[in-house]
Design a protein that fits this description.
Elements: E1 7-9, E2 26-32, H1 33-43, E3 47-53, H2 66-73, E4 77-80, H3 89-96, E5 101-104, H4 136-140, H5 143-151, E6 160-161, H6 177-194, H7 199-224, E7 233-235, H8 242-248, E8 251-255, H9 266-279, E9 284-287, H10 293-302, E10 306-310, H11 325-340
Parallel strand pairs: 1-5, 2-3, 2-4, 4-5, 7-8, 9-10
Antiparallel strand pairs: 6-8
Main location: other
GO molecular function: metal ion binding
Subcellular location: Cell envelope
Length: about 350
């Protein structure tokens, strides 16, 4: 038995014939609210979902409680992003002595270098590589691309960087509509394995969601056609949008150290302000899971307003604009297009 439980879904479906539900609804633990909504979109009345990190909460700084340890113990399925995003999950599963099934939904889109974002638009008759199979040689294949990219707009990015605390890989793949398709496919496979009698329902719901994601992807591409590549630059608080950047040719840069759990020096702020002025950046975005006082300070010193707020690692409440995953993507994409089309 591996440390993630009885059955590990890493990249594709493992056979679960030995696992039997003791009740009609699947009891599911989602690591954070975005995944919780994805599961509910496919499972609907057949699932009971608990999201450990709730709406407008930051998964990066979450710390499990004894109550949540007990919740995990009784779950049939635990769904997490993977790719190092939930650094606290290993400890939680071990503390709960979880014996159920675990699903890693981001495996298969795994790296932020771009190749895995070439998601097929047809049916999912393709293989997904495990994160462990993505070797050093794979990264070398991207060296020319990375070198050229660094010699472009990144040349003057003093004080700004794509900063991550997840081992060098950006795990925030859900910001790409096409990568989101993979998330839904893994979730659908898992629910079919646990409730095979509802296979047709789950597959129909998946098709409906995938069609909406494809339409959203196309809308974003069409909207960006009128925006010169040199103008596709935005400032965000948290450096967690690289999949979106690569999917649509946008630069979304963050001040060095301006992560959800980091400190920012006066020099960092000055570097960002200088970059904004030198490059005529049109928009700065706050985020729903971060303390936005610093980004407000940056905007004030740069002489441009904070354009709006992006939903990065959590959904909004029901009255907000991002109460579901699809609403979140739609809202974020509309905000970005409105900023770039000014």
């Amino acid at each position: 038995m591996n440390r993630f439980g009885q059955g590990l879904f890493a990249s594709g479906l493992m056979l679960l014939s030995a696992y039997t539900l003791s009740h009609e609804r699947v009891e599911v633990i989602a690591s954070f609210s975005i995944l919780g909504d994805m599961i509910e979109q496919i499972g609907q009345e057949h699932v009971a979902v608990t999201s450990l990190v709730g709406i407008n909460e930051d998964p990066h700084v979450y710390s499990p409680t004894p109550r949540e340890v007990r919740k995990v113990q009784s779950a049939d399925l635990v769904v997490l992003n993977g790719l190092g995003f939930e650094g606290w999950m290993t400890r939680l599963l071990e503390a709960s002595e979880y014996k159920g099934i675990s699903l890693l939904v981001a495996e298969g889109v795994m790296t932020d270098h771009g190749s895995e974002l070439d998601v097929h638009e047809d049916e999912h008759e393709h293989e997904h590589d495990s994160v462990d199979d993505h070797s050093h040689e794979d990264h070398e294949d991207h060296e020319d691309h990375d070198e050229a990219h660094e010699q472009g707009r990144h040349e003057e990015h003093d004080g700004l960087e794509h900063e991550h605390d997840h081992g060098g890989i950006d795990p925030h793949a859900w910001h790409s509509a096409l990568a989101g398709r993979e998330y839904f496919h893994h979730i659908t496979e898992a629910l079919i394995a646990l409730l095979p009698e509802h296979k047709a329902e789950f597959e129909q719901r998946e098709r409906e969601v995938l069609a909406q994601l494809s339409a959203l992807d196309q809308k974003m591409k069409v909207g960006l056609e009128a925006v010169p590549e040199s103008k596709r630059v935005l400032i965000t608080v948290h450096s967690g949008f690289r999949y979106l950047e690569q999917a649509y040719g946008i630069e979304m840069l963050s001040p060095a150290g301006l992560t959800t759990a980091g400190d920012v020096s006066a020099r960092d702020v000055a570097d960002v302000v200088r970059f904004i002025k030198d490059n005529q950046v049109q928009a700065i975005f706050a985020e729903n899971i971060t303390d936005n006082r610093l980004i407000t300070q940056v905007a004030k010193e740069a002489g441009i307003p904070v354009f709006g707020e992006l939903y990065s690692g959590a959904l909004s409440d029901a009255s907000g604009p991002a109460a579901t995953y699809l609403e979140m993507l739609t809202y974020n994409y509309d905000q970005i297009l409105n900023a770039l089309q000014q």
